[in-house]
Amino acid sequence: KDEMIAEMDSGLAVRSSSPMLMLPTHLTKLPSGQEKGDIIALDLGGTNFRVLKVKLMGGGKYEVDAGKYRVDESLMYAPGEELLFDFIAQKVKEKCPETADAPEPVPLGFTFSFPVEQPSINVGKLVTWTKGFTCPGVEGEDVVALLQKSFVKAGVNIKVVALVNDTPGTLYAGAYKDPHVAAGLILGTGTNLCYLEKVLRAPKLQSARAFNKLPSVATWCQPPYAGSAQEHVVNTEWGGFDSGSEVKALPVSAYDVVLDRRSVNPGEHLYEKMISGMFLGELARLVASGLIAKGILFQGEVSEAFVTQNGFTTEAMANIEGSSSIKEVQELLATLGVPAASELDCRLLRHICSLISARAARLVAAGLAAIATRGGTTDLTIAVDGSVYSKYPKFKERIISTLKEMLGGDMGVRFMEAT
């Protein structure tokens, strides 16, 4: 907790090398819940993306018509300037065909779940890919300009008017329903957190304005600023916490080291690799494969799921931990190529899954305790989204119990699902 607070303070300095980037978002006011109107939104969050038609009705109520699409693994590595953004533009056109004949540009909000530097609300340079993406030709570029170019090629009359990270998007969705929400948390394929920071406590937010020479070409004088606003939503990029040459606080095991070394971004985002859905199943697989090699698990019999990188998913891990009987675990293992798992095998594998998920939940809680402690209050409502939070058995309960350990039994941290 204390180390995360230190990295947050460092990241909010004008010049910082903190692995927690603490990025300004240019969002200085939360919704009241009374806004009304129709919106098109694009949400690129990882291996899936969504195109949403949203109707805001006021009173904290809204309706959503969403289309969900999978990003093929080949697109995660292909030149993003061409293939990835062109693919996204075509799916937007499929979901919103009326935009092809629109007499005026249709406004679109772009939720982009990767770290960007933003000199303005509709300009954002990708800092680095995360969540397994490595598309060349995108890092350092304005992703809004790349998407806008693909919209032109797709023949749709759409204008991207706002760029936000998925974490502020979650914060805003939650705040529309509950005005007490002051932070947004993602716990899914990846993880991140944003919160409302006081400008007086953040030198980075007090710096001089960056200016634009052209609509999507930013020239930087100093880091982005918050102007005269008293508060500013900060995207922490907390997945990078404690990364670098010297790990100070994270409980890194030999399995974490192997997973990190084999990842597409070794040495980076260690915190995310210990708590997010993209990596928990692989951690369990590494532990299980070591026990298989020693003849302790499955009598040393090898199955493809446990010898192939990412062959054992977080979804399978959750299903095993959430199972109600040994027979159910045996049936799940049979689908993974282990037809004759014993009762001891099932109990051992379920215990492995439980240890890894419990560690992840406790690490999340430690991060949330840092946010609450730095803000000087445990009366904090957090909007949250993501499959690990919503679907993994006992994950939420473990977070809450750990928060009570760290902040006291009367702590007031509350969660509300933003979707």
Note the topology:
Elements lengths: L1 H10 L11 E2 L11 E9 L3 E11 L2 E10 L2 H5 L2 H16 L10 E7 L3 E5 L2 E4 L16 H12 L3 E7 L1 H12 L3 E7 L3 E8 L12 E4 L2 E3 L11 E5 L18 H9 L7 H6 L1 H17 L10 H4 L6 H8 L4 H10 L7 H33 L5 E5 L1 H5 L3 H13 L6 E4 L2
Helix pairs in contact: 3-4, 6-8, 8-10, 8-12, 10-12, 11-12, 12-14
Characterize the structure shown.
The chain has helices at 2-11, 73-77, 80-95, 143-154, 166-177, 254-262, 270-275, 277-293, 304-307, 314-321, 326-335, 343-375, 387-391, 395-407, and strands at 23-24, 36-44, 48-58, 61-70, 106-112, 116-120, 123-126, 158-164, 181-187, 191-198, 211-214, 217-219, 231-235, 381-385, 414-417. Strand 11 and strand 12 form a beta hairpin. The chain has 419 residues and is of the alpha/beta class. Helices cover 38% and strands 22% of the residues. Residues 208-226 have low confidence and may be disordered. The chain is built from 14 helices and 15 strands. The chain is globular. The strands form 4 sheets. A 6-stranded mixed β-sheet has the order 1-13-10-9-14-15. The chain has a 5-stranded mixed β-sheet with strand order 4-3-2-5-8, sandwiched between helices.
